[in-house]
Protein 1
Amino acid sequence: MDYRIIETAELTGDDDPRRWIHEASNHLWHDEIVAVHGNDDLTRPLDAELRLSVANPERRLVVWAALPTGADDGADNVVGIGRLVLPLLDNTHYCEARVVVRPDARGQGIGSALAETILNRARAEGRRVLVTSTGSVPAVATSDADAVEVGEQLGFIDGTHPAARFLLGRGFRPEQLELHSVLDLPVDSEGVARLHDEAIAYADDYDLISFEGTCPDEHIDGFADLAVAMSTDMPHAEIDVEAQAWDAARIRHQERRQMAAGIRALTVVAQHLPSGRLVGYTTLLHDAAHPAAANQGDTLVLHEHRGHRLGMLLKVLNLRRAQQVWPSVERIHTWNARENDPMLAINFALGFRVVGTEAAWQRRLDG
């Protein structure tokens, strides 16, 4: 197939003439996610996709669409999409990319052309690290002949999988494994009560505060400090990332974008009573377009306040609240770095079951 590649960036409004490229991106990724996971829980509604594709001070988005030569411009004719996200407020050495090609157009060089276009732009932007992810490459035993090691002894993946072959052939290396787990609701109320009672005995010096949607003004600065800590505390394996620059204004901007996209958040924070400082939090996210599913967002307890079972308390309280506020939710998705044993232990105790393995891949552009 002969094809051409068209570039566009963020939308400027509902009448943007390149809106159809973002529509095509949404359609192709919807079909790919359903093919990988067997359901549409993790897809994004088109109207939300379009709202999140407008200009954003936190990042710059570049999108490329591949169309057959001679085909008219239009979402239905797009056979491949490449996306590049360039952070602007921090991590300006870093960028993230994704490529998807329609199944009936694969094997014709379209993905390779989109990947090369992305690599060239990332270099031109002065970025040194390009990161992507795969949700379809299975983990394998070390004895398998085609096993590829992930990071530093984090596990192995199937090197014969098409996505793995594609990325390995373009200089990417798998640096981290994440376990994708699901918790079916309703949970065992007696079991959750027991976990709560066992944990609360260790947390006399702490108060737990819940909020829905927006963080209360009196806690916004402390919440921003936790977001900064989360950006470096979460396991990154060998992925080259730096601390993010969170403040109250950025928190409010994120809240507005989530609400505009139809996403609602439930959050619980832990406050250290002697100091008044916020020292931990957890967040659940729910998209009204997917009434039966919710996603676990970040969970963090600062290092100096660990050992008080706060991680379990935060999650138990937020889980109970979610079942009250979102009665339609039947399952919660979460992702954890394979090396994050403490958080995995909490999740397994709550009843999460592993349903898949995802990999983060990195390509260094300065060597």
Note: The chain has two domains: 3-178, 186-329.
Protein 2
Amino acid sequence: MPTVDEILELFEKRGDSEYGGECVTQLEHALQAATFAENEQAPPSLIAAALLHDVGHLLHDLPDDAPDDGIDDRHETSGYNYLRELFPAAVTEPVRLHVPAKRYLCAVDPNYRQQLSQPSIVSLELQGGTMTAEEVAEFEANDHCDGAVRLRRWDDAAKDPNATTPPLSHFAQYLQQSVAEADPPPDSFKTL
């Protein structure tokens, strides 16, 4: 199980990699998404999710242009698996669902796909394309659907090479708050 310090260190060590064909790095993208969440006064758990939503990209050694070669790194799943023992579902579920949220928005918002960048359109096709009506209903039934959609919107907007954001250390507070709200692991207990 990672610690908050280890997660921050991961961003410091690997966050300078290119963000999938966009004009920002992984760290710049994460900071921009978290800044949007904070500016919209999202709860701490959703600000943490915005910062961490693409942590799965930092966990592998695939090249930055892997999607151009038809490779989906399934970063939403690897990120979820990496974070789930430390954070509550209010953080990990939006992380897990931010890719399905893109597919969902393509199905329910006729203008959404036109707003996507070219690299995001390429990855959309690798990720399954637009959701079917059955997938839409299943997605909408998830308790974290709204959080995932909000996160997706911030994710899509967080690609400005000239954006100014607070530093990574500023967002550590939201990670710590979210960890404190997590349920204890099932094998732990409290003594009275």
Note: The chain has ten helices and no strands.
